[in-house]
Amino acid sequence: MHFKTADLCDVYSEQLKIAEPIFHDYGGRTGFAGQLRTVKAREDNSRVREALEEAGEGRVLVVDGDGSRRCAMLGDRLAELAHRNGWSGVIVFGCIRDAAEIGYIDIGVKALATHPRKSDKRGEGERDVPVEFAGIRFTPGHYVYADRDGIVVATAELSLSDGE
């Protein structure tokens, strides 16, 4: 899949929501896109694992960790699980860990920062609910496109040939 978010903005500017530039790239793939699914949980990645254990089918998991910088919501084992199960990428409004290892996995990963502490495992959180951060709303079923220039969201899949 070849696209540039800058080109998508040029063609589809009225149809896109553009996230504030607060994320860093950590995955082995910097450009990724797909229909989005969500997890909303603070400092508990139980629901993240639950989602990534399912077939990704090229989707992107958007994790609202409430912006917490007290622990990691994704590590190398979950990133590898996501890759094996066909997820295109993971966007974390929070932290990840094992950044060096994640950089070798062919999956897109964006997060606020890194933190060495793992999250709690209490089984808390919600799945597939709208979440809001970085100035936009991420709604399950919408489409997210991410690369080094940023993250954009559309209500429907975009024709990437028009954005090239």
Characterize the structure shown.
The protein is an alpha/beta fold and 164 residues long. It has a single domain, classed as Ribonuclease E inhibitor RraA/RraA-like (Glucose Oxidase, domain 1, 3-Layer(bba) Sandwich), CATH 3.50.30.40. It has five helices and twelve strands. Strands 1, 2, 3, 4, 5, 6, 7, 8, 11 and 12 form a ten-stranded mixed beta sheet that branches. Strands 9-10 form a two-stranded antiparallel sheet. A hairpin with a 2-residue loop joins β11 (143-147) and β12 (150-154). The radius of gyration is 14 Å and the shape is globular. The model has no long low-confidence stretch (mean pLDDT 95).
What is this structure, in a nutshell?
The model has no long low-confidence stretch (mean pLDDT 95). With 164 residues, this protein is α/β, with parallel strands linked by helices.
Structural descriptors:
two-stranded antiparallel sheet; ten-stranded mixed beta sheet; 164 residues; Glucose Oxidase, domain 1; alpha/beta
